[in-house]
Write a structure and sequence with these properties.
mainly alpha, two-stranded antiparallel ribbon, 5 strands, 5% strand, globular
Length: 198
């Protein structure tokens, strides 16, 4: 099993894009199957239909795959007219923490950490602006096309705590929200952290 996973990961790195990002899937140009025939092609039957993406969902996924491909996965070209641009809290919080970690590694090995510190600070400031949901006291994703917050409170909105992004006041508000009936108060008998505000 491990060798199989290593082989799959190696294949993804073989398809790495010029910008350094990795694709989630690499399509075999010599495949005899149709990748986008219909959603039935992808279904395993191991979950209820209500728990799986709908035809419309699959159509949107395929649209984005084709959209990105038609622009050679070039971020500058994609940003020009993509209908789906989201400032993702989870990804950006992890990016901020990664830059902080790289700055610390740079200091340890005697290198200049300035560029990593600058990137971490820029990401932190960006997260503290648009994605902060003042009403609920949590970070949410931000729709850059519509220029508005995506009001779905999830566990991902707590990740900025991991990266040290919120100030003390915001961190306290996040703790209060997490410890409320929305997620599961500490005195309740329930799962410790559901993915979404119930």
């Amino acid at each position: 099993m491990i060798k199989h996973e290593q082989s799959r990961n190696y294949a993804l790195f073989q398809g790495q894009w010029a910008n350094g990002l990795l694709p989630h899937i690499i399509f075999d140009p010599d495949a005899t199957i149709k990748y986008f025939s219909s959603f039935e092609f992808w279904e395993t039957g191991s979950s209820l239909a209500a728990d799986r993406p709908s035809d419309n969902d699959y159509d949107r996924y395929v649209y984005l795959v084709r959209f990105f491909s038609s622009r050679d996965h070039d971020e500058a070209k994609i940003r020009l007219d993509c209908p789906f641009l989201v400032q993702d809290v989870l990804f950006n919080a992890l990016l901020c923490q990664a830059d902080c970690d790289l700055a610390e590694i740079s200091r340890i090995v005697g290198k200049d950490p300035t560029s990593f510190e600058k990137w971490a600070e820029q990401t932190s400031q960006a997260i503290n602006s648009k994605p902060w949901d003042e009403e609920h006291g949590i970070y949410v994703d931000f729709d850059l096309v519509e220029n508005k917050q995506i009001h779905v409170q999830s566990a991902a909105g707590l990740l900025p705590l991991f990266a040290g992004i919120p100030d003390t006041n915001r961190a306290q508000r996040m703790y209060s929200y997490l410890n409320s009936r929305s997620f599961c108060g500490l005195d309740e008998a329930c799962y410790a952290l559901p993915s979404y505000d119930r």
